Every structure is written in structure tokens, then in C-alpha cells.
């Protein structure tokens, strides 16, 4: 289908170019700016908004600013999203935005309602804890650590073991997720005219 559309597009460009040349020759007008028509580009599927990354049917936003877990969740919600809920091993590998071990992002997992009972913001039980986590470390905050951040491989975790519990009030970056907007109909969209 895409090949057929591209062929038709080329034919259309050629016809337009020939018509323009004929008109220009008839009018003794040598203006070549009309030789290049507006060209439509075919998109098979809609992509995500600017600054969001697409993986399968979902769009992800990796923030650069840092907030508490609760404020991070609010910022995601303001964008029509939620803190990421990791459901597959492939999704857990989306941490390519992490540049160093200290580059951590909040995800939508917490045990703030009941210590030791880790709950996703919208349900699930798949976990990729670092072997030494969760540890509910109370040195920074006597209340312990009730929220989860994801980071680069390191700290003895190795591949896939990259989750760490943290005090929810700590400022971290965030990963938001939302389904792609399927109301955008795939197909032709105009490009900039030359």
C-alpha cells in the first residue's frame, strides 16, 4: 500500500512539474519557484507528542526536572498521563535515558499505604528489584522509603534489576506514560512546500 502511494505521489509530482513547465513556457515566465509542489508524506501510524518517546502502543515522557513522587505523579496527570507502570521486560529496558547510576526516575510503584505491600498506581505485580532492595532505608527519613525509582544497571543489580526504593519526598526525575492518541488518523499529511 505504501509503495503504491509513493508511486502515485511521484506520478503526481511529475504531472505537476510538466504542467508548470508548460504554463511557464507559454507565459515566457522563467520563475522556477513553482517547480516544486507541496508533497504529502504518508504516515502508517501516528506518533507521540513532541518530547515523548513511543514504544509499542504507549508514549513515554522522561523528565529533566526533579520533583517528589507525589508532585511527579501530579505533573504526569496534568499531561493526561500517569507515572509509568512497568508491565513487561521490554518496557523495563526503556531506561536508555539514564546516563549514570545517579540518574534515577520515579515510577508508579509505592508501599505508602501498607509497608511491604508494593502497589502500582493502577495495579500489577511484575517487579524488577535490585537484589538489595527494597530496603526501607531510614537514615535520610525515619519514615523509611515508600516510593520506587528506576535507574541504570548498577549497584550489583545487573540487567533488569534496576529498581530502588526511596523516600517519596526526594526530588527525582519522572517517567510518565500514556496510550498513543488513536484519534489521529494515519495517512497523508502535508509537508512544507519548497
From TrEMBL:
<dbReference type="GO" id="GO:0030246">
    <property type="term" value="F:carbohydrate binding"/>
</dbReference>
<dbReference type="InterPro" id="IPR001304">
    <property type="entry name" value="C-type_lectin-like"/>
</dbReference>
<keyword id="KW-0430">Lectin</keyword>
<dbReference type="Pfam" id="PF00059">
    <property type="entry name" value="Lectin_C"/>
</dbReference>
<dbReference type="InterPro" id="IPR016186">
    <property type="entry name" value="C-type_lectin-like/link_sf"/>
</dbReference>
<dbReference type="InterPro" id="IPR016187">
    <property type="entry name" value="CTDL_fold"/>
</dbReference>
<protein>
    <recommendedName>
        <fullName>C-type lectin domain-containing protein</fullName>
    </recommendedName>
</protein>
<dbReference type="InterPro" id="IPR033989">
    <property type="entry name" value="CD209-like_CTLD"/>
</dbReference>
<feature type="domain" description="C-type lectin">
    <location>
        <begin position="55"/>
        <end position="177"/>
    </location>
</feature>
<dbReference type="InterPro" id="IPR050111">
    <property type="entry name" value="C-type_lectin/snaclec_domain"/>
</dbReference>
Amino acid at each position: 500500500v505504501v509503495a503504491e502511494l509513493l508511486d502515485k505521489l511521484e506520478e503526481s509530482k511529475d504531472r505537476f512539474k510538466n504542467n508548470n513547465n508548460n504554463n511557464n513556457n507559454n507565459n515566457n515566465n522563467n520563475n522556477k519557484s513553482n517547480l516544486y509542489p507541496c508533497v504529502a508524506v504518508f504516515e502508517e501510524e501516528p506518533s507521540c507528542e513532541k518530547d515523548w518517546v513511543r514504544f509499542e502502543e504507549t508514549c513515554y515522557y522522561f523528565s529533566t526536572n526533579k520533583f517528589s513522587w507525589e508532585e511527579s505523579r501530579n505533573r504526569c496527570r496534568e499531561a493526561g498521563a500517569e507515572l509509568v507502570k512497568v508491565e513487561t521486560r521490554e518496557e523495563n529496558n526503556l531506561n536508555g535515558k539514564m546516563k549514570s547510576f545517579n540518574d534515577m526516575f520515579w515510577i508508579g510503584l509505592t508501599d505508602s499505604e501498607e509497608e511491604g505491600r508494593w502497589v502500582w498506581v493502577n495495579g500489577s505485580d511484575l517487579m524488577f528489584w535490585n537484589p538489595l532492595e527494597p530496603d526501607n532505608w531510614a537514615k535520610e527519613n525515619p519514615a523509611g522509603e515508600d516510593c520506587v525509582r528506576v535507574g541504570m544497571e548498577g549497584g550489583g543489580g545487573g540487567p533488569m534489576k534496576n529498581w530502588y526504593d526511596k523516600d517519596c519526598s526526594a526530588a527525582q526525575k519522572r517517567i510518565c506514560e500514556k496510550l498513543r492518541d488513536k484519534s489521529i488518523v494515519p495517512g497523508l499529511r502535508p509537508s512544507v512546500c519548497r
